[in-house]
Amino acid sequence: MHYQAFAIAQNVEKSTEGRLREQKQNLMTKSAEREGLKQRVAEMKEFLNEQIGKIEEYDEGNINCFIYGSMCMKYLSIRQTAEKWEISIRRIQVLCNEGRIPGAVKIGSYWAIPEDAEKPTDLRIKSGKYIKKDIELK
């Protein structure tokens, strides 16, 4: 009976050690991640401080405008561009991802499309059938 109590105590001690080891590992990982983030923020601050001009952003009648020095670039959102060109939001996303809209910029998870960008031509096959090319055999 005494041996069983001793075995149970050892099992509890081992499980506690394992749990504590795992917690310590998790804390060390989180600490390393925080240090990495701190380093990245410091690098970004240094980069921004090196920039000559001041960047400002403001909303002018639902048109985002980014000012860098004296240059102002006006951008539309995907939704605004979809309404302007009368095509779906998803189609605009595909065009942006394919790089078919000149000047479109991805900011985080959002696309900024220049106000004066022209609608790209639709290169998809409209017949619904693939076009076969004649191949000459030599």
Keywords:
138 residues, alpha+beta, 3 helices
Write up this protein:
- The chain has helices spanning 2-50, 78-85, 89-97, and strands at residues 55-59, 64-68, 71-76, 105-107, 110-114.
- The N and C termini lie far apart (92 Å).
- It has 138 residues and is of the alpha+beta class.
- The chain has a 5-stranded antiparallel sheet.
- A hairpin with a 2-residue loop joins strand 4 and strand 5 (110-114).
- Helices cover 48% and strands 17% of the residues.
Brief overview:
With 138 residues, this protein is of the alpha+beta class. It has helices at 2-50, 78-85, 89-97, and strands at 55-59, 64-68, 71-76, 105-107, 110-114. Helix content is 48%, strand content 17%.
Pick out the low-confidence regions: none
Number of strands: 5
Largest sheet: number of strands, sense, barrel closure: 5 strands, antiparallel
Q: Count of helices?
A: 3
Q: What order do the helices and strands follow?
A: HEEEHHEE
Helix content: 40-55%
Please state the structural category: alpha+beta
Distance between the termini: 92 Å
Mean pLDDT: 75
Radius of gyration: 29 Å
Shape: elongated
Strands of the biggest beta sheet: in what spatial order?
1-2-3-5-4
Query: What portion of residues belong to β-strands?
Result: 15-25%
Map the helices and strands.
Blueprint (H helix, E strand, L loop, with lengths): L1 H49 L4 E5 L4 E5 L2 E6 L1 H8 L3 H9 L7 E3 L2 E5 L24
Antiparallel strand pairs: 1-2, 2-3, 3-5, 4-5
